[in-house]
Amino acid sequence: MGFYWEYIEKKMSFEEITQERKKQLKRISTIRNNRDIIVYAADYSKGQAPISILYEDLAPFNDQLSNLNGKAVDLILETPGGSGEVAEDIVKTLRNKYDNVSVIIPGWAKSAGTIIAMASDDILMDTTSALGPIDAQLTWQGKTFSADALLKGFEKIKREVDEKQFLNQAYIPILQGISPGELESAQNSLDFAKDLVRDWLISYKFKDWNVHSSTGEEVTSEEKRVRANEIATELCNHEKWKTHGKSLRIKDLEEMGLKINNYEDNNDLNDAISRYKALLNMSFDTNIFKVIETSDTQIYRHLNSEAPPQSDNDVLFAGIECGKCKYKNNIQINLDTAKPVKKGFKTISKDKSIICEQCSTNINLEGFINDVQAQTRKNVIL
């Protein structure tokens, strides 16, 4: 029986799920010689939410990191990717604080998540885990696509013009919509990701690679540089991987020349990480779409609320956006004891929902309530 089903059968409350998550994080830390542990995880299934690595995640990430005081850290990472610049900031923050950084991938860490993994001393995965290509993504005319694909597309047009000595009229609208500056920006984005990965591999992943396992001969600085450049180039090879969402598993990464630790080889560690992954998925079954946490504290981001609830003693005020009409409904959340309802606000009904004032849609707030109770450690009065 799988862990997910085991926990479902127990019919655990959100608070119990949270406590069990913390228990498994502490287990992982103990098994890993009491290293600090921090989680940055997003729910892939909530694509309508800002699940990518974003600038606004830096403050909560740094907040959680400030609760830790060790010399080595494990980052549990689950992300579809996002901003390469923010990924760089996360890495610099971790590296400024810790002598040793490992990244644990229970599921997927794609794109900018892969960039972060390449800055670690050690990468831990299992046979189902995956990293991904690191080709930069650009948004143009409302569409997101690979910077590499854009540049190769324009190279194809250029070659066709050189060969046929005329321009296909179908290309004119495309060429009119892209400036030389945007092409240069696409190239810069590609170079940025590739250079980061190459430099980080040399500085961290390969810092203790001193002897060739096959020959026993010393590894030179030039050999480290060449290997790092080959791996960075391979990870940026959109022409090979075809899709930005391609899953690169342990075998794929080892074929590139990366050493990956399969945590399935350690039964206790595999059990703890697998249980944490199941509990994380159950936490995402609510309105929560992003979890940033340590073994003692946590910060959630959830759907519907436009901003963190504002507190007035044991009363919280929040703006809940209707998913249908986007109207913001102002609600009052009473904690532990009932309070008079402030003018202009409404309370949550006993079935854990509100009715949108504008379109009368029923908005389920069970996940939001669980989030509030987990963070405040108080009961929401319905």
UniProtKB/TrEMBL annotation:
InterPro entries: ClpP/crotonase-like_dom_sf, Pept_S49_ser-pept_pro. Pfam families: SDH_protease. GO terms for cellular component: membrane. Signal peptide: none annotated. SUPFAM superfamilies: ClpP/crotonase. Gene3D superfamilies: 2-enoyl-CoA Hydratase, Chain A, domain 1. PANTHER family: PERIPLASMIC SERINE PROTEASE. This is Serine dehydrogenase proteinase.
